[in-house]
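hey so u asked for the seq, here:
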Amino acid sequence: MLATSAAARSLLARTASRAAAPALGSSLGATRSFASVEPYADYGKSVFTGRVADEYLKKHGSSADILDDPSWVKTHSDTVAQAVLDW
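ran it, structure tokens below
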């Protein structure tokens, strides 16, 4: 498809006006700050794996070894779900 010269000029004008516009926040004097990782200090400490999972899965007639094989989602999902609810 061939563009007309008027369409090309219009596209160039829109692109130029967007490039000339100040970025959002730059005229407001906004400064960049970084989030603190402090609220995430305990992230990953309460995970249903290993000894924790084994304790609850044994109550439902299984063990944490089933979690090593990704096919547990098809074969043992109900057992794992019940154990997680108890957890």
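The chain is about 45% helix and 0% strand. Residues 47-87 form one domain.
lmk if thats what u needed
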